[in-house]
Please model this.
Amino acid sequence: MEQLAVHQEFPRPFALPAVPPRCWTVTGRTRSPLARAVRAGSVRTGPAALAVVLGTDYRPADDALLLDAVARARADGLPLALLHEGAGGISLLRAAGSEDRALRFASVQIAARTPSALAAAPAAAAAALLTDRLGGPAQRGEVLIDGQGRSVTGHWRRLELPPGEGPLTDAEPAAGHLPGGGVPSDLSTPAGPYAWPGAVPSGRSMPTGPYAWPAAVPSDLSMPAGSSSRPGPVPYDPRGGRPVGPVLVTGGLGGLGLRAAAVVGAVTGARVLLLDVRDPGELTSRERRVLERVRSGPGGAEVLAADVTDPAAVAEALAKATGGPPATVVHCAGLIEGGRLDGLHPADLARLRAVKTDGLRNVLRATDRGALRQIVAFGSVISRRAHSGMGGYALANEVLRRETLRSAARLPGCAVVVAEWSLWSGAGEAHRMGVVKDAAQMGMPPVPLRPGMDALLAMLRRPPGPGRAAALVVTGAGDRGFPEPAAPAP
Ligand SMILES: NC(=O)c1ccc[n+]([C@@H]2O[C@H](COP(=O)([O-])OP(=O)(O)OC[C@H]3O[C@@H](n4cnc5c(N)ncnc54)[C@H](OP(=O)(O)O)[C@@H]3O)[C@@H](O)[C@H]2O)c1
Model:
């Protein structure tokens, strides 16, 4: 029986309704061209609204800017529009909206600083605040303005995963067993120009190359029928089982990281590097058995004690590791913490983001990028759907998604995937906290361990290249909250 649903977001043109211009109060990066454009589009007699403006990359100061904007919008009873050039932040606003149903919010991203995009942004923000056609208030509220000033929104398409054949993670794996045979065609769908919205590279000029947004978006925005991509290189020879480099798993002693290490190590035969702040002594007896199995796998394993947020510690740990530079990075390190936004401080947001985003950045800085063949970063579906009390975690995962997809531009030989998982059963923090059953009763079936790990293996087999970098949302099949029901056609 089908246990998972995998979705990817694709852009489609979206005609925003004409609405009266707003009288904007602009906060954030107030001296940027985008902020100037919002002020230029402001009409004194229009209905009042707040605009918080961010840039291309999410910066540490943005935590305070977003929290302040949310607090001010709530205190003054004003709608809040986020306008940005790739930094993101809508996930925090969604959480704020589910914690305070009176808050109206929307997000507009411009793909490039063209005169047309800048001119269109304030009207798009005003319209996005009013229209209900951008999906339910819990989820979407997001518009992208292309270089020609046209508005685009996202819609979800389901991808089919082939049936899993991977080893059970807590059972004895068949050594050298290679699940699935070839690259699963449905996961190899070209994603580049469609990887909305995080794939717009950083930089202040019009994106070029595979991200030449929106020129690269075909007019019908659909995938050619029967399209499939050829397999990309894998970091090991499937016949001889010879790995070309170790697999580095950050958070490798965590619930999911340890299982990922066991599965990927067994399947590839590669040496496994488990990098974590957790001490192996903290593992349960079941987890210790999994670790022993990883250690006795074909390539062996090493536990590297390092905090991913500490660049020097990561560099030192990786310099000491044996087996050559990693060919694969599975970035599982993460902090999972809740808290309503009105009780959170910028430092709380920064801490949650650091493990995810700084963590991956530090790992990439400390590794030989030329040797890297695959990266899978563990994100969360919470960056896509509102969840009260999880705004900080949602933001950390949204920024991780955006930065990871952007990093693909600097990793031409590498397959880059952000796996935006729903909660897992069988292992991991949600399982440990005992919340899986309640979530299933609320319409969120979990990602069971085995199919989830099969999905991970399928992601590791995606072909390389920035044009194929993708964020894939993986939920249990039949999730009632994701994707949210489609917005009515414009
Ligand atoms: N479990 C789920 O249902 C679920 C769903 C969606 C996404 N995810 C994501 O999947 C990943 C793994 O989740 P999990 O459930 O396996 O969580 P977990 O059991 O808590 O594992 C995370 C591991 O990362 C370690 N870690 C935390 N901060 C670190 C740092 N600064 N440097 C190095 N290691 C650090 C943790 O150590 P400490 O325990 O000592 O902090 C822990 O060993 C996370 O990124 C999470 O956001 C999980």
